[in-house]
Amino acid sequence: QHKVLNDAVLKGVIADNNLDLDVNQVYEDKQEIYASLLPQLKEMPGASDFLEYLRIMGIRTAAVSSGYKKSVERSLEACDFKRYMYAIIAKRQGGNDKPHPEPYLRGAEAIERDPSSCLCVEDTPAGVISAKRAGVGLVIACPNEWTRNLNFEKEAEPHIMVASLEDIITLDLI
């Protein structure tokens, strides 16, 4: 469904600007560029320790992302994090996207837990809103270098705001 919409938008941009481009070639080029950038991907500070901590504690984890599944999987693989994920919930997998609660409801279902017993770590206001609307029991915001200046207030206010993933381990919440 999203590809049809993206195709229509892309075709419109190409036509409006009289560009001599093929839609399918643009998508292929985008994937090649993305793949070429993956080796430069850097994990958030403390991500490895945090995921290992959750694994040791026997806590199932799911990646609930606004990215497309293929991109999310590639990113997780590049950082060697995919092995920690019990499930991956990505953009447009047959439902609504963040800030709608559906991604987190599907994530909780995938790890066989009630949302109220889940912990969510988010880096965007839309993700915080999504998790809170889904009834996630503990919503922690850990903004990154691109999201730290966004508005995490009102509906997007998390239960806890941390500067790094290491801070979550030291809070001893689990």
Explain what you see:
The chain has 174 residues and is of the alpha/beta class. The chain has seven helices and five strands; from the N terminus they run αααβαβαβαββα. It has helices spanning 2-16, 23-37, 47-56, 69-78, 102-110, 125-133, 165-171; strands spanning 61-64, 85-89, 119-122, 138-141, 160-161. The strands form two sheets. The chain has a three-stranded parallel beta sheet, with helices on one face. Strands 1-2 form a two-stranded parallel ribbon. It is globular. It starts with a helix and ends with a helix. The relative contact order is 0.12.
Summed up:
With 174 residues, the chain is an alpha/beta fold. It has 7 helices and 5 strands; from the N terminus they run αααβαβαβαββα. It starts with a helix and ends with a helix.
Offer a few descriptive terms.
11% strand, disordered N terminus, 7 helices, 174 residues, two-stranded parallel sheet
What does the secondary structure layout of this molecule look like, with pairings?
Blueprint: H1 2-16, H2 23-37, H3 47-56, E1 61-64, H4 69-78, E2 85-89, H5 102-110, E3 119-122, H6 125-133, E4 138-141, E5 160-161, H7 165-171
Parallel strand pairs: 1-2, 3-4, 4-5
Helix pairs in contact: 3-7
Helical segment count: 7
- What share of residues are in beta strands? 5-15%
Helix proportion range: 40-55%
Largest sheet data: 3 strands, parallel
Secondary-structure element order, as H and E? HHHEHEHEHEEH
Read across the widest sheet, the strand sequence of neighbours is: 3-4-5
Based on CA atoms alone, the radius of gyration comes out at 18 Å
What's the count of strands?
Answer: 5
Coarse morphology: globular
Q: Average pLDDT value?
A: 89
Give the end-to-end Cα distance, rounded to a whole number of Å.
39 Å
